Amino acid sequence: MATLIGRKFHVSYSVSGATRLMHRLG
User: Fold this and answer.
1) Which pTM does this prediction carry?
2) How is 14-25 classified by DSSP, letter by letter?
3) In whole angstroms, how large is the CA radius of gyration of the chain?
4) Alpha-carbon dihedral of residues 17, 18, 24, 25, nearest 10 degrees?
5) What is the enclosing helix (H) or strand (E) of 7?
6) Mean pLDDT of 3-19
7) In 3D, which of 2, 24, 5 has the Cα closest to residue 13?
């Protein structure tokens, strides 16, 4: 259970970071 939540949080964090990076480059 904890692993699933951690993975979901990690994915969300990665997407947020990628979006921020794209905005900076764009």
Assistant:
1) 0.53
2) HHHHHHHHHHHH
3) 11
4) 160
5) helix 2-25
6) 93
7) 5
Residue 9 has pLDDT above 90, yes or no: yes
Residue 17 confidence class, pLDDT cut points 50, 70, 90: very high
3-state secondary structure of 26: coil
Closest by CA to 26, choosing from 10, 18, 9, is 18
d(CA 20, CA 1): 29
Place of tokens 């939540």: 5
Task: Quote the CA–CA distance of 2 and 22 in Å, as a whole number.
Answer: 30
